[in-house]
Amino acid sequence: MRKPIVAGNWKMNGSRESVSELVSEIISVGTLPCDVFICPPSVFFDLVGSQIADSPMDMGAQNIDWRESGAYTGEISAAMVKQSGCRYALVGHSERRTLFHETDVEVAKKFKAALDVGMTPVLCLGETLQQRQSGDTEEVVSSQLKTVMQTLSVAEFGQGIVAYEPIWAIGTGETATPALASEVHGVIRGLLQDQAPVLGDEMRILYGGSVNASNAAGLFAEADIDGALVGGASLISEDFVAICRATGTN
Ligand code: 13P
Questions:
Q1: Is 229 in the pocket of ligand 1 (CB under 6 A)?
Q2: With 70 as the cut, is the pLDDT of residue 250 above it?
Q3: Burial class (CB in 10 A: 0-12, 13-18, 19+), 99
């Protein structure tokens, strides 16, 4: 049985005041039926880390650098975010790939860097609207997955999580239908299965892209959707909590 997991990616949003308020509202509801983590901007790690210390909620980084240390102005290493309280690290988010030109090879290095310090990497995959319309979704997602998976042993890759986030659904209000998301999740699970049955059986695959309090339960009803990576709706505590609770309705 794969335990559902819901993550909030806050992206570049919030202030010390709003972050503090959001965290206390979420933790005030107590236990939720899934694993939960939030990814605040890194300058708020200390603040959020101290607030969640006695709660079941965890924290993740939105990005890490794969190098250990050195003259890389503005970058933050995996060890640094781990030391600041992060248990998870997103790697290869489409905004990093598109806006900051991250390649699959760099994403693979980030995945490994997270593992090396004992964090759980969350590998983000997804196609553009144009790639979907040209019928290339499967090829794009397969290639993004395989580039990372093939650099690691089964035991290593199996410590991570995969998040399917179609780019056309991110921040647009246009969610993939459960059937459409499930189709791609099935492809991803099939590729994991081909690599090793244990990966296919045990790896959690999250869906991301305009997930909200109304559409979450429908997505989670699909057997291959093990939770969500939530952007906009994770900035509203009631919506984020409702999404977390929706994992318990199946
Ligand atoms: P939205 O939920 O705002 O579409 O963002 C999804 C996302 O990018 C999460 O990483």
A1: yes
A2: no
A3: exposed
